[in-house]
Amino acid sequence: MANAHGGSSDNYPANALAQETSPYLQQHAHNPVEWYPWDARALEIARRTGKPILLSIGYSACHWCHVMAHESFEDPATAAVMNELFVNIKVDREERPDLDRIYQLAHQLLTQRSGGWPLTMFLTHDDQRPFFGGTYFPDKPRQGMPSFVQMLTRVAQYYREQANELRQQNVALLAAFANLNPPSLLDGTLTTQPLAACRQQLAQQFDKEFGGFGGAPKFPQSGSIDRLLQHWYDTATTPEPDLHALYMATLTLTRMAEGGVYDQIGGGFARYSVGADWMIPHFEKMLY
Fold it and tell me: What is the Cα–Cα distance from 248 to 256, expressed in whole angstroms?
């Protein structure tokens, strides 16, 4: 496939993804990037060379995955920087949802922002702990964002020069993971404390004007809406029914139905809204 930089990704020798069965990974088998799947060989190369790992997670139907692939992964100059500075690993989220789940959470903890795809994470060479991350990076500086190549060189420099700070960050990140996944109670007693904590967190993230949770891009988060409705239902017959939980759920559903994220011709909802007001959809509908 020809790219905007004058070459064709099919002209390059096959990399380590050529032996993979995932259609998404196969799409990157002839990139000039020296991609590896997530396996023992790739992790051993990182340990031996001391290079940090660039982990890219996506899937075949992801629009921005294809954009970033076309702009950066098919570009020989960008690929040369990636190959020099990093061990590059490509993961299909539909093949490895476990890795996607772990590193999406790490991205959220590191950046205090919701994740998405493509997920671009940078990991330590010896134990695969994340130290920096993002999602889509443009090939040229745009709207305050550095170009992908600029970001690559800065991350590599940070990794070389800030080892002490990196270790401290890793300790804090592991502690945050532990808080999110507390150990099971020894006596097996079940409490409603995790549900109450979830309810409180949703209230903190709630958009009082447009509904939903967080800012742009805004995802429907059906699980969060369901949790609020269930919380209201569980308290409906008590002396203090949780009417605010019901309000957050209904306002979110109403604003979504009124916005462009709802397909008024074919039905269903777009995967997410470009803006916080639900008006401009990302034209992709998922079946899950």
Answer: 12
173, pLDDT greater than 90: no
Residue 273 lies inside a defined structural domain of this protein: yes
Phi, psi for 21 (deg, rounded to 5): -95, -15
Cβ count near 240 (within 10 Å): 6
Question: Are both 198 and 255 inside the same structural domain?
Answer: yes
Residues 94 and 209 placed together within one structural domain of the fold: no
CB 103 within 8 A of CB 130: yes
Query: Which of 127, 145, 179 is the last residue before a domain boundary?
Result: 179
> Are 69 and 114 in a shared domain?
yes
Please report how the helices 76-85 and 148-161 are oriented relative to each other, as an axis angle in degrees rounded to 10. 10
Lookup result for tokens 């401009």: 280
CA 285 to CA 125: how far, in whole Å? 37
Q: Is residue 58 part of a domain?
A: yes
Asked if the model's pLDDT at residue 8 lies above 90, the reply is no
Query: What are the tokens at 185?
Result: 């109670």
Q: pTM for this structure? A: 0.73
Q: How far apart are CA 53 and CA 211, in angstroms?
A: 38
Pairing relation of β-strands 35-36 and 87-92?
A: parallel
145 three-state secondary structure: strand
What domain range includes position 148? 9-179
Assess whether 127 and 189 both reside in one domain.
Answer: no
- 238 and 196 in one domain? yes
pLDDT of residue 175: 80
| Geometric angle at alpha carbon 248, from 245 and 251, rounded to 5° | 145
Segment (H or E) for 178: helix 163-180
